[in-house]
Amino acid sequence: MTRSALLEISAVNKFYANLHVLKGVSLEVPEGTVACLLGPSGSGKSTLLRCINHLESIDAGRITMSGQTLAYEERDGQMHERPRAKIDRQRQDIGMVFQHFNLFPHYTVLQNITLAPTLLKKSRKANVTAQAMELLDKVGLANKHNAYPSALSGGQQQRVAIARALAMHPKVMLFDEPTSALDPELVAEVLKVMKDLAQGGMTMIVVTHEMAFAREVADSVVVMDAGVIIESGTPGEVFDNPQHERTREFLRHVR
Ligand code: ADP
Ligand code: MG
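Structure for Amino acid ABC transporter ATP-binding protein, as requested:
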């Protein structure tokens, strides 16, 4: 059985002024699968994630989720940005976790998680709080709900950031080097949460340099270089038998 693509990225192009950063990137992420995105610094990985949740506009191509075009609609044969309210609703289906956790420093852990659902989903406060506590339990931090971010380790803060993204019930989670800013001894606890999430069926795109994680958890490994996907396949295919010299070179550096 082939699984339908939850997220479909088709011939996406992105420029920053004259700099052509994404050069016709196409990628399908089936529902319930994990794609690990690898590639050297500056290859466009972050830009691709930022385009998916429309933190950045795209200049050509199309990104669809569940068959619906994200952020743009076609009129008179041209793509136009959708109304802000519609984009905001679509973006609620896309959770993002950044390298720097960006928690709100003046809110407690629990408040960090309940803020957006309270503002945007307008569920009853008691339900939002109960769900936030469940998520905190899931990331192993139920006992920290009243702590402020500054009292937590980097690994704990990143787990709160993951819980915060999950609180919006996203259909897909995007991770941009979620462990790159962490002390080495804190990396495993965050990867464990991500692995649990993957095993629970979450659809994920993960930019990472953690090759062991990619090998174990990814359904597909996608290698970018200079704005182009140069290679993709199963972890076995890409790691054990890379086709592209640039992939071999990249793997030599991260191993
Ligand atoms: P990666 O995440 O793979 O390291 P990025 O997507 O961050 O790559 O960057 C791709 C290219 O786009 C780089 O050349 C980078 O300098 C450039 N770039 C990224 N963000 C911006 C921006 N906001 N304005 C101009 N150039 C940018
Ligand atoms: Mg990046």
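The longest strand covers residues 5-16.
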